[in-house]
Design goal:
8 helices, 62% helix, elongated, binds protoporphyrin IX containing FE
Length: 228
Amino acid sequence: MKTPSLESNTATRRLFVWELPVRLFHWALVLLMILLYLSIEVMDNMDRHAQLGYAMLALVLFRIIWGFVGGTYARFGDFLHRPGKVIRYARTLPEAKPDTIAGHNPLGGWMVLVLLLGFLTQAVMGLFSNDDILFDGPLSDLVSKEVSDTLTGLHAQLFNVLLVLVVLHIAAVVYHKVRKRENLTPAMITGYKALPAESTAEPSRGGKSWLAAIILTICAGVVYWLVG
Ligand code: HEM
């Protein structure tokens, strides 16, 4: 029997779920991760790597604050659920039918938090690291050389962990498309998600771009002050 598809099924509704600040955050994060990797592996430019790392820190700090004051589905309160709900959701994963959830699903929600904390930890450790030649992270003076060396090693290892998490994240998006016939990616571009007609979710509210701009500017200011 053919899998019910949100693309072929006409009984769908288009719901506004991801406000502009969340979408810009997402693709800026993707771009920064690629550039951070290239700055080391291809350009071998520590100064550029550090600058990109500061931008990453400001961006992640912004998203953490946005998790409290952003639009309906950007809030931690919307997508971080108790273990019971996560397990119940996980049991439905093999079902070949689209979810009716508007925001992050209960499993994906925790993945979002893990990714955010992973990138935050990575950026903070970078501030304390050194390359044993010309570069000392802006906060490396605050710790001993031994601690700085340890954090440098962890910084390199955590990158590999983040890569695995990103691969898992993309694999989950592909799984939802192939098995559950849910095309999640366009929603991260346009803001509108295609949901089954029976979904009763409301469109996202709040999440104003001017508020995001103020918060991001403050986060950038804090990082500038920290590393300046
Ligand atoms: C470096 C690579 C990537 C990282 C670090 C990353 C990280 C994240 C994070 C943190 C979120 C949560 C967004 C938020 O609530 O603010 C997210 C959501 C999402 N990402 Fe990515 N992402 C990456 C690559 C991709 C790619 C390549 C795609 C598409 C093919 C993608 C598709 C999505 C989608 C569709 C969502 C929303 C999922 C949902 O509907 O719950 N991501 N990603």
